[in-house]
Amino acid sequence: MASNKKLLVLPGDGIGPEVMGEVRRVIDWMDKRRHVSFDIGEDLVGGASIDARGIAITEAVVERAKSVDAVLFGSVGGPKWDTLGFANRPELAILTLRKELGLFANLRPATVLEPLVDASTLKPEVVRGLDLMIVRESTGGIYFGEPRGVETLPDGSKRGFNTETYSTMEIERVARVGFDLARKRQNRLCSVEKANVMESGLLWRQVVTALHQREYPDVELSHMYADNCAMQLVRNPRQFDVIVTTNLFGDLLSDLASMLTGSLGMLPSATLGLADESGRRRALYEPIHGSAPDIAGKGIANPLAQMLSFAMLLRYSFDMEDDAAMIEGACTRVLASGLRTADIMAPGCARVSTHVMGEAVVRELDKVSA
Ligand code: IPM
Ligand code: MG
Questions:
Q1: Considering 13, 69, 143, 343, which one is annotated as catalytic?
Q2: Which residues share a beta bridge with 281?
Q3: Of 278, 313, 349, 369, which shows the fewest CB atoms inside 10 Å?
């Protein structure tokens, strides 16, 4: 049966293809048991694409990504390609997709699931029940700012430079995503920058403050310097509801926040663009963990972050809240039953492979829909 839900699956490198394989089983399950079918295309990105096509992402793949409802991305990179220059690194695949599809709002939730409360390196009483959302700007700032480069100085030494830049429009559109999310949660938004040191940070603070007064006076807004935010995230992470921040600070703070939850292997993310006239947003979903080349091919990677990314895809791109919650519930129950991949292994639990974890999630799904 023809379906109007178009997905592009881009497994990428390292553990990407392994964990994506388990998600494909969940997608098959949804087709069979929930009669939700997707039109799925798959393509190469990252090192895999460099090897086959000489470039991290071809224009054809970017066009395919533009034509679908949602992109499910794995991970890219690995030591094999580490010596390539900036003009052709596997990471360019994800940066190009963010930029070309206009995916400016990167949503990175950090949620502590009760069965994993002891997996965090922080004390359980500090992280228990944590439910935090970081909204990271993802098409601007120092990642893309011009001028950038390395120049040779008259004395023959070199100077490398990058530019942090944010316009009113870029700040407003990502701040709106933060305010809107806060309204659906605990109604608190913390905006993070370095307004004490950087002009672009001061502008960020002024624009967010003005937008708050104009459009979101009902949301509780606070401002924090990025260094203080890093400290507060470790000291008392539950003080935050939604954080909105720049590309670079968001990169750092979201890695930090992920470890509050115990493992990078657990966290999904969504990257969204502006909605068009029909309300459709371009969107890409990916786990926060990278390609983990050290464990790639061993069948031990945790597939849950990729599965939870698929759940986010159902929620944000297709409004399928029930199905998203069902997958999230199945993942939580598998953990509660004591199954663990190596990254979240705990005393008294059973250590299982990527595949067994995937099977267990499908079995839990069977139970709820039986
Ligand atoms: C991330 C990653 C990327 C980034 C890399 C792979 C380019 O660290 O998604 O956080 O820095 O944005
Ligand atoms: Mg990162």
A1: 143
A2: 275
A3: 278
Backbone φ, ψ for residue 189 (5° rounding): -125, 130
CATH superfamily of this structure's domain 1-113+264-370? Isopropylmalate Dehydrogenase (3.40.718.10)
DSSP 19-84: HHHHHHHHHHHIIIII----EEEE---THHHHHHHSSSS-HHHHHHHHHSSEEEEEE---GGGTTS
Establish whether 285 is a catalytic residue. Answer: no
Q: From 75, 89, 94, give the residue whose CB has the most ligand 1 atoms within 8 Å, as the site to mutate.
A: 94
For residue range 65-105, what is the model confidence (pLDDT) as tens digits?
A: 999 999 999 999 999 999 888 788 999 999 999 999 999 99
- Residue 14: enclosing H or E segment and its boundaries? none
pLDDT digits (tens, 9 = 90+) for 267-316: 999 999 988 888 789 999 999 889 999 999 999 999 999 999 999 999 99
* The model scores a pTM over 0.70: yes
